[in-house]
Amino acid sequence: MALKELVTNADGRLSTTTTVQFLTFLTLAGTLIYSVYLDRGYVPDLFLYLAGFGGGLVATKGAVSAYKAAKESEK
Predict the structure, then answer these.
(1) What DSSP string runs through 6-64?
(2) What sections of the protein cross the membrane (predicted)?
(3) Do 46 and 31 touch, CB atoms closer than 8 A?
(4) pLDDT in tens, 33-61
(5) What's the confidence (pLDDT) of residue 36?
């Protein structure tokens, strides 16, 4: 599996949803490693904020796409 497959759709175009999810995973993994290395106690707070931000982006995009599809089907 190539890195390109992780961030593209089946037709080869860049997928914003997949890209956001992949980058959120990398950010959370990096945050975990760095926080453990520094022996910080606020790791759960960082995880909550970063995961909420990444999840919120994907959920918002999905809601907007569903709303647009519903509006187009009404026409």
Answers:
(1) HSB-TTSPBPHHHHHHHHHHHHHHHHHHHHHHHT-S-HHHHHHHHHHHHHHHHHHHHHH
(2) 12-34, 46-67
(3) yes
(4) 888 888 877 777 777 887 888 777 777 87
(5) 82
